[in-house]
Amino acid sequence: MTSSYNSSSTKPLYRGTQIVWYILGIIEVLLAFRFILKLMGANPVAGFTSFIYGVTYIFAAPFLAVFHNTQIIAGSIFEWTTILAMFVYWVIVIGIIKLFLMGKTVSTPEAAVKLNKQEQ
């Protein structure tokens, strides 16, 4: 019996999932910086703050009108939309990884076992 781990498609799938997780990690870290800077009331004109807001705007923009921001203290904003964006991108990546894994080669006995588990 040949294991699906020895398939020629396993290594590219593994690399693909690594790349997707890495890209998500970068986006999540940038969005976390955005969230923290807003929460701490960072000066939006400062170089680093301006850079983070500019880079993350494209990722936060689809969610900006979903919730109202909560102002905690003067200048300090709890940006719910950034939290939503982080969650949505994480869910999307889980879906992409699941799609990648569907392309993995599976032997007939492995497929039978997995199908039997799904029936239960």
- As residue ranges, the low-confidence spans are none
* % residues in beta strands: 5-15%
Overall geometric form: elongated
N-to-C SSE string, H for helix and E for strand: HHEEHH
Number of domains: 1
Major sheet: arrangement of strands: 1-2
Number of strands: 2
End-to-end distance, in Å?
Answer: 25 Å
User: Considering DSSP H and I runs of 4 or more, what fraction of the residues is helical?
Assistant: 55-70%
Structure notes:
It is built from four helices and two strands, in the order ααββαα. The protein is mainly alpha-helical. It has one domain (9-119). It has a two-stranded antiparallel sheet with strand order 1-2. α1 (10-39) crosses α2 (47-60) and α1 (10-39) packs antiparallel against α3. The two termini are 25 Å apart. The model has no long low-confidence stretch (mean pLDDT 87).
Please sum up the structure shown:
The chain has 120 residues and is mainly alpha-helical. It is 66% helix and 6% strand. It has one domain.
Keywords:
mainly alpha; 120 residues; 6% strand
What's the structural blueprint in terms of helices and strands?
Elements: H1 10-39, H2 47-60, E1 70-73, E2 76-78, H3 80-102, H4 108-119
Antiparallel strand pairs: 1-2
